[in-house]
Amino acid sequence: MKIFSAAQTRDWDAYSIAQTSIRSIDLMERAAEACTRWLLARYGADTPFHLFCGKGNNGGDGLAIARLLHARGRRVAVSVLENGKDGSFDFEENRRRLAQAGVPLQAVGPGLAWPLLSAETVVVDALFGTGLKGPLQGAAADVVRFLNGHGRAIISIDLPSGLDADASSAGGPVIRAAHTLTFGAPKTGQLLQESGAFVGLLHVLDIGLSPAFAAQTPADYEFVDEALARSRFRPRQPFAHKGTYGHALLLAGGYGKMGAAVMAALACLRGGAGLLTCHSPRCGYPVLQTTVPEAMFLPDDSEEQLTTLPADLDRYTAIGIGPGIGTSTETTGMLKACLESARRPLVLDADALNILARNPGLLPLLPEGSILTPHPKEFDRLFGAHASDFDRVTTARAQAAALQCIILLKGHHTFIATPAGPGYFNSTGNAGMAKGGSGDVLTGLLTALLAQGYAPTDAALLAVWLHGKAGDIAVEKQSYESLLPTDLVAQLGAAFRCLYPVPFP
Ligand SMILES: NC(=O)C1=CN([C@@H]2O[C@H](COP(=O)(O)OP(=O)(O)OC[C@H]3O[C@@H](n4cnc5c(N)ncnc54)[C@H](O)[C@@H]3O)[C@@H](O)[C@H]2O)[C@@H](O)CC1
Ligand SMILES: [K+]
């Protein structure tokens, strides 16, 4: 699914109106119907709704939702943020329709008393959407602060009001929503880490916008959804043998950090690698051989850290390096030797990235197509401090092109920068995965997919989607608090099965 800017979204609306003869007001009605269905499915008959509307089309959506909820017998109150000007054409039409339905409007704004919101009231934020120009000030900022301070659940329509769809909103007042219901496709501003506190859970509602426009319009970013993941997935061949799916090598583990190697190894095997060798310090021998009997063990000369490279790296089809390895001088030497001798893309995570950050001269040695998996702090250590996640995305794309590598900037919607083509945001995953060890699982999975011959971009897109999907499946049986990285490993099979063609085989 493509991710469009606010301007492209407006064009998408206009194109749909022109090509399908649907009127703008009817498209608004469709959007309102989709939101109303979502609200009715989520909240019981006793829940009162209070809609806060601006005077643009986002506010028009709010008025239409109020009318539809009222028609279904729900209790609704509507407040309009007055600015002394006429509303948009579709806002005014919906104002008339709402009056006909007998739902009163109250004004909020300077000098007016704030409405009372009971404890059970669900607030619907339809103040500003994609038409926002600059940070909110004055009365608009006051309403946002009033609603955020009230402690009621807020459902934002299209965008949390005050959030810019295309640029950083850092510092400006923005609604803190529990859920955001957006139309057609996600917007960049909804997907970055810095927006997470405002967007809550994002739901993309289909309102029947033109598929032809989406297909023919180039986009800077794409959303890695199930359809995209399926398009990159290659089912296993019936006559396969273990050699068909590659020999993965993991350089992982250290004294006190053998768990990282275990999780990466388990994920690598569950990810489909034909053979796996783990090169770890000697202290890891009993640990790995008992917890991951399917993997072969290649001991380092050192008891506690990685100091040497295995002989003949060319016999491995993919190499993952980093989980639990530490950043000692000896291990730095081993990583340098690995970069100098590897002739295939590498997966680099955790301490391998910290070593690169301390030794930026090593970056140009990265084999083409290598995959780096930093979280934002590791990213800043590698490429310098950034003021916003929008800036990080820009740097990630520039560095991916300069280094001819793939950079996975980890987050709720992990960003995938590729050397050419669009950037990608992942659609799967949840807050339960924010736990030490999740990254080790991703490293193992990436290494497994490279070992099986996936091109680096395909391996990256597929791995982030599968990793998040396994988390989404696992959390159904767990909770966000109790989810463990090993639960992700256990559900990788279920995640793969989502991608199987039907019927299979
Ligand atoms: N046909 C369409 O275009 C559709 C649009 N839809 C809705 O329409 C929205 C976009 O509507 P609009 O383009 O009218 O824009 P908005 O309704 O998002 O905002 C425009 C209004 O906000 C005011 N405003 C903008 N920036 C401000 C600021 N910094 N401080 C104070 N006031 C500010 C403007 O003066 C104007 O009144 C979407 O987000 C979506 O909710 C949906 O109904 C689906 C169909
Ligand atoms: K809104």
TrEMBL record:
<dbReference type="InterPro" id="IPR017953">
    <property type="entry name" value="Carbohydrate_kinase_pred_CS"/>
</dbReference>
<dbReference type="GO" id="GO:0110051">
    <property type="term" value="P:metabolite repair"/>
</dbReference>
<feature type="binding site">
    <location>
        <position position="439"/>
    </location>
    <ligand>
        <name>AMP</name>
    </ligand>
</feature>
<dbReference type="GO" id="GO:0052855">
    <property type="term" value="F:ADP-dependent NAD(P)H-hydrate dehydratase activity"/>
</dbReference>
<comment type="similarity">
    <text>In the N-terminal section; belongs to the NnrE/AIBP family.</text>
</comment>
<keyword id="KW-0067">ATP-binding</keyword>
<feature type="binding site">
    <location>
        <position position="324"/>
    </location>
    <ligand>
        <name>(6S)-NADPHX</name>
    </ligand>
</feature>
<dbReference type="InterPro" id="IPR036652">
    <property type="entry name" value="YjeF_N_dom_sf"/>
</dbReference>
<dbReference type="Pfam" id="PF03853">
    <property type="entry name" value="YjeF_N"/>
</dbReference>
<comment type="function">
    <text>Bifunctional enzyme that catalyzes the epimerization of the S- and R-forms of NAD(P)HX and the dehydration of the S-form of NAD(P)HX at the expense of ADP, which is converted to AMP. This allows the repair of both epimers of NAD(P)HX, a damaged form of NAD(P)H that is a result of enzymatic or heat-dependent hydration.</text>
</comment>
<comment type="similarity">
    <text>Belongs to the NnrD/CARKD family.</text>
</comment>
<comment type="function">
    <text>Catalyzes the epimerization of the S- and R-forms of NAD(P)HX, a damaged form of NAD(P)H that is a result of enzymatic or heat-dependent hydration. This is a prerequisite for the S-specific NAD(P)H-hydrate dehydratase to allow the repair of both epimers of NAD(P)HX.</text>
</comment>
<keyword id="KW-0521">NADP</keyword>
<dbReference type="GO" id="GO:0046496">
    <property type="term" value="P:nicotinamide nucleotide metabolic process"/>
</dbReference>
<feature type="binding site">
    <location>
        <position position="58"/>
    </location>
    <ligand>
        <name>K(+)</name>
    </ligand>
</feature>
<keyword id="KW-0520">NAD</keyword>
<feature type="binding site">
    <location>
        <position position="440"/>
    </location>
    <ligand>
        <name>(6S)-NADPHX</name>
    </ligand>
</feature>
<keyword id="KW-0630">Potassium</keyword>
<feature type="binding site">
    <location>
        <position position="375"/>
    </location>
    <ligand>
        <name>(6S)-NADPHX</name>
    </ligand>
</feature>
<feature type="binding site">
    <location>
        <begin position="57"/>
        <end position="61"/>
    </location>
    <ligand>
        <name>(6S)-NADPHX</name>
    </ligand>
</feature>
<protein>
    <recommendedName>
        <fullName>Bifunctional NAD(P)H-hydrate repair enzyme</fullName>
        <ecNumber>4.2.1.136</ecNumber>
        <ecNumber>5.1.99.6</ecNumber>
    </recommendedName>
</protein>
<dbReference type="InterPro" id="IPR004443">
    <property type="entry name" value="YjeF_N_dom"/>
</dbReference>
<dbReference type="Pfam" id="PF01256">
    <property type="entry name" value="Carb_kinase"/>
</dbReference>
<dbReference type="InterPro" id="IPR000631">
    <property type="entry name" value="CARKD"/>
</dbReference>
<feature type="domain" description="YjeF C-terminal">
    <location>
        <begin position="225"/>
        <end position="499"/>
    </location>
</feature>
<comment type="subunit">
    <text>Homotetramer.</text>
</comment>
<feature type="binding site">
    <location>
        <position position="158"/>
    </location>
    <ligand>
        <name>(6S)-NADPHX</name>
    </ligand>
</feature>
<feature type="binding site">
    <location>
        <position position="161"/>
    </location>
    <ligand>
        <name>K(+)</name>
    </ligand>
</feature>
<feature type="binding site">
    <location>
        <begin position="129"/>
        <end position="135"/>
    </location>
    <ligand>
        <name>(6S)-NADPHX</name>
    </ligand>
</feature>
<keyword id="KW-0413">Isomerase</keyword>
<keyword id="KW-0547">Nucleotide-binding</keyword>
<dbReference type="GO" id="GO:0046872">
    <property type="term" value="F:metal ion binding"/>
</dbReference>
<keyword id="KW-0511">Multifunctional enzyme</keyword>
<keyword id="KW-0479">Metal-binding</keyword>
<dbReference type="GO" id="GO:0052856">
    <property type="term" value="F:NAD(P)HX epimerase activity"/>
</dbReference>
<feature type="binding site">
    <location>
        <position position="260"/>
    </location>
    <ligand>
        <name>(6S)-NADPHX</name>
    </ligand>
</feature>
<dbReference type="InterPro" id="IPR029056">
    <property type="entry name" value="Ribokinase-like"/>
</dbReference>
<feature type="binding site">
    <location>
        <position position="125"/>
    </location>
    <ligand>
        <name>K(+)</name>
    </ligand>
</feature>
<keyword id="KW-0456">Lyase</keyword>
<dbReference type="GO" id="GO:0005524">
    <property type="term" value="F:ATP binding"/>
</dbReference>
<feature type="binding site">
    <location>
        <begin position="410"/>
        <end position="414"/>
    </location>
    <ligand>
        <name>AMP</name>
    </ligand>
</feature>
<dbReference type="InterPro" id="IPR030677">
    <property type="entry name" value="Nnr"/>
</dbReference>
